[in-house]
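Sequence in, structure out. Go.
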Amino acid sequence: MRPKGQMGMFREALEINDLYDMGYVGDCFTWSNGHNDHTFTKERLDRFVANKEWRERFQLVKVEGNEKYGKRIRKFWFKFEAGWLKEEDCEMMVKKVWERKQMNLEPIKQVQNLLQRCSGELT
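Output:
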């Protein structure tokens, strides 16, 4: 568990940036300790946030809970690191990746592919 101060700063950052938890549909738990006894624990570790404008623009987007908590079924997670913005070449690297789209993929797969390639270039 994170220290109380860190969680407070996280909540404050969300508030300052007008970011709101998007909630979920289905099972809210994303992790379990895998125990088969009285020590069994499950938690919701993953959160998805968006600002008001994004939510208004993409009203049909929903976060679906995964019934098999503890197992990362999702093949790819993208986490943007703010430190990347300090890199001189960050914008150029992202543009370079985005210019090489694979048009034969369905749109969501294309975005996943581009994010994965951006992550690889930036790390």
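Check: The beta strands are 19-21, 31-32, 42-43, 49-51. The CA atoms of residues 73 and 91 lie 31 Å apart.
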